[in-house]
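Example record

Each entry pairs one chain with its bound ligand, S-adenosyl-L-homocysteine.
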Amino acid sequence: MNRAEIIHWLRTSDEAALESLWQEADAVRRREVGDAVHLRGLIEVSNRCVQQCAYCGIRAGNRTISRYTLRLEEILASVALAQQFGYGSVVLQAGETPQGLPTEWVAEVIQEIRRQAPEIAITLSLGERGEKAFETWRLAGANRYLLRMESSNPTLFRKLHPQHPGWEFRLAALKQLQKIGYEVGSGVMIGVPGETWDDLAADIEMFRSLELDMVGVGPFLPHPQTPMGTEKPTFNDELTTLKTIALTRLLCPGVNIPSTTALAAIDRESGHERGLSRGANVIMPNVTPPSYRQLYEIYPSKANTSEAAETFDRKLKERIWAMGRTVGTGRGNAKRKPS
Ligand code: SAH
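Structure tokens for the complex follow.
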């Protein structure tokens, strides 16, 4: 599929044609990664941040939220929940503060998790922290790293990250992570102000050329306490998100694709299911201690901020089974690319 064909799919509203796209994406998903839906326990480790990402509610410039960092025991309790639910992986996600989250402290946390949960895959989503930190954490026992490129268009990337040295550094970080031996995930927000269809099509092509292990996409959700919160989003809707998931499945057949929380936030009823039936095979339930969740407000009204992890887990598994899918066991590693 070339750029023009991807754009054609992104723009079409022909329901019969779209039905064929959904079916093909679902068939490729089944053939390549099977019916298992892998669950990853998301732990929102800290909302402290020195970055000024123009879209993100926990950016340093937002002085209206109180800041927290979980203690080691709180992180380990979250990991214990994920273990209790049988999740194959935990994801440590945070704002970016090298001082607040020192490299050595994170390494210690990783080692403690590894001790408590020898089988679990440890995924990090801690932003760009430099090759040294990436290496230290890999040696400490981390397996995967999620770092969204946010856009493949360097000009749009600069608008999203006014203080960042530039898109090529984000790309270099992704390459470093791959070289160090992480399974690497990336992705974009969909429909940020100023984004074009051509940009989104180029993002999807770049998922393929980067040979990623995981691709996460979700709608851009304006946050009022951010510079981008008042600009008009372009196509941050559910249909465009589902098309992007389906097209990603076709272009990158073996990757792990989450049906994201942002998608569930715009369709609380069935966003997770819709994503799963159009190419996705992963969900990342939140196992952060409930009292901290509303402080990790990267966008407003995040789905599942108040529901206890136990309730969410039980309902989620019932919904997965009701779709005729199964709950993944084991780590749910990315399918190895043919060498
Ligand atoms: N500091 C880490 C983790 C950020 S949160 C990092 O930057 O990698 C994880 C993802 O949430 C981000 O990569 C971004 O794509 C998404 N996100 C942040 N703000 C958002 C918003 N307003 N709407 C939708 N997604 C958002």
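The chain is about 40% helix and 15% strand.
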